[in-house]
Design brief:
This protein is an alpha/beta fold and about 180 residues long. It has a single domain (about 5-184), classed as Rossmann fold (3-Layer(aba) Sandwich). Helices cover about 40% and strands about 15% of the residues. The chain contains 5 helices and 5 strands, in the order E-H-E-H-E-H-E-H-E-H. It has a 5-stranded parallel beta sheet, sandwiched between helices. Helix 3 links the parallel strand 3 and strand 4 (about 105-110).
């Protein structure tokens, strides 16, 4: 039996009419059903990041504590103009030291057919600089607005594929987080 890890699922945007929040909640809900994970959902609309960067005035103490507790991260973000939203970058920049040696999985969402591939690629140099090993199993939600019901349930036609992909990613996150925690 693997150790229980704390997984922080980060929503990538604070836009009001964001379809990606459905994917965030689905990932968190699926991960929360596992016996080897404790899940915390991090929604940027619930935090305040004054200023810019990794200075003392740019931190939200509640966010700092979540990042300190987390053993691993799952970033679920929409793709905006081939990249990631400023709200996600602001969250990531605020806690530079606390991310080190904590693995991260990436999931991209888009309204088009690419499914957020480009946002995942754009995030790789950022998470690398933060010292976060990015796992290989990425998840993409193309035409995210068509994959979920209005209440946020994944449509039955897509469940088999997404459940398999997410399970592989969560298994890998759990493996990395457990081993990196032991080596610290």
């Amino acid at each position: 039996m693997e150790q229980v890890i704390t997984l922080a699922v980060l929503a990538g945007t604070s836009r009001q009419e964001r379809e990606s929040i459905k994917a965030v909640r689905w990932v968190a809900g699926q991960a929360g059903q596992r016996d080897d994970m404790r899940v915390i959902v991090v929604d940027p609309v619930e935090f305040t990041f004054a200023g810019d960067g990794n200075d003392a005035t740019g931190k939200d103490p509640r966010y700092t504590e979540i990042i300190r507790q987390a053993d691993a991260f799952y970033i679920v973000t929409p793709e905006y103009n081939h990249s990631f939203p400023g709200s996600l970058k602001r969250m990531l920049d605020s806690e530079y030291e606390l991310y080190r040696h904590k693995p991260v999985a990436l999931a991209g969402c888009s309204n088009g057919r690419w499914g957020g591939v480009r946002v995942c690629e754009a995030l790789l140099p950022v998470v690398h600089r933060l010292g976060m090993p990015a796992i290989q199993a990425e998840l993409y939600f193309p035409k995210v607005q068509t994959l979920f019901t209005e209440s946020g349930d994944l449509l039955a036609a897509h469940q088999g594929y997404y459940n398999r992909q997410l399970t592989a990613a969560l298994d890998e996150l759990q493996w990395y987080a457990t081993r990196l925690r032991i080596s610290e």
